[in-house]
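Consider the tokenized backbone below.
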């Protein structure tokens, strides 16, 4: 069994949206929600990324085309220095040295930096890959998929096994076979969404949830997502089942951090700079 030294969270800009659009139980208030990604320090495999946030090209996409429709409910906050590549370089991580990237799913705010990682293998589910490729052109864009980001990517499909269990999840994938990072199926937001549980040397665990919940209140209250989540979602019932599993995990692992990509509390901390969890 191995453990990782730390997880560093970054944001690649964000959106200012009414919190109620991400969680219906929250008060109606315009709030900053980050588009975050994480870098896991693995003792053998080095910098392992969880998602890639926005890149320079995806930011241009956000301010044009069908995403301008989104501007009615969410205002994009983005500056050039927010892009994933420059965020990594700000802490002296060279993107070309990254060999492994876990993709929670293929929405554009998670795939934007993929083309800036020339030597990476991208670990995702086959269902997610095939699901995104079924939607062509404008249909894909309206569902949040920007195929140009991952057309040339070197992908490896994750296989969940019943023998790898983290309660209440009935299956999982031990990414490197050393117990350090366990991938968990969290479908619902998209057809093949996954999350990653990272074991740290300190004994703490971090569950990088991706968009299995948009903000922490989705599973702490629990309360469903509003317009933003429901509009992009693949399956409402599956998504809710996944939220209840996150809730069960969170309640039974008080020593663990559960980090949704767009959580407002994480966003407040990230405004000061990258956030390290040891
Ligand atoms: Zn998403």
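A designed sequence for it:
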């Amino acid at each position: 069994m191995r453990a990782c030294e730390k997880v560093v969270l970054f944001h690649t800009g964000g959106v200012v949206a009414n919190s109620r659009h991400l969680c219906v139980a929250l008060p109606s208030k315009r709030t900053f929600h980050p588009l975050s990604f994480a870098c896991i320090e693995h003792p053998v495999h080095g910098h392992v990324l969880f998602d890639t946030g926005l890149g320079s090209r995806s930011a241009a996409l956000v301010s044009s085309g069908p995403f301008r429709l989104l501007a009615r409910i969410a205002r994009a906050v983005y500056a050039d220095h927010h892009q994933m590549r420059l965020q990594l370089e700000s802490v002296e991580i060279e993107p070309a040295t990254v060999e492994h990237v876990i993709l929670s799913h293929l929405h554009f705010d998670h795939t934007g930096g993929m083309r800036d990682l020339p030597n990476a293998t991208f670990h995702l589910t086959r269902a997610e890959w095939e699901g995104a490729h079924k939607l062509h052109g404008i249909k894909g864009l309206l569902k949040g998929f920007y195929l140009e980001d991952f057309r040339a990517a070197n992908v490896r499909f994750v296989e969940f096994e019943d023998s790898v269990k983290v309660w209440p999840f009935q299956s999982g994938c031990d990414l490197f076979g050393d117990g350090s990072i366990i991938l968990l199926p969290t479908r619902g937001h998209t057809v093949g969404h996954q999350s990653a549980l990272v074991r740290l040397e300190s004994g703490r665990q971090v569950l990088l949830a991706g968009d299995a919940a948009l903000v922490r209140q989705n599973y702490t209250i629990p309360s469903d997502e509003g317009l933003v989540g429901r509009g992009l979602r693949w399956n409402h019932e599956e998504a809710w089942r996944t939220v209840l599993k996150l809730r069960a995990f969170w309640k039974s692992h008080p020593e663990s951090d559960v980090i949704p990509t767009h959580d407002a509390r994480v966003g407040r901390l990230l405004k000061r700079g990258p956030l390290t969890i040891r």
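The two ends are 17 Å apart (CA to CA).
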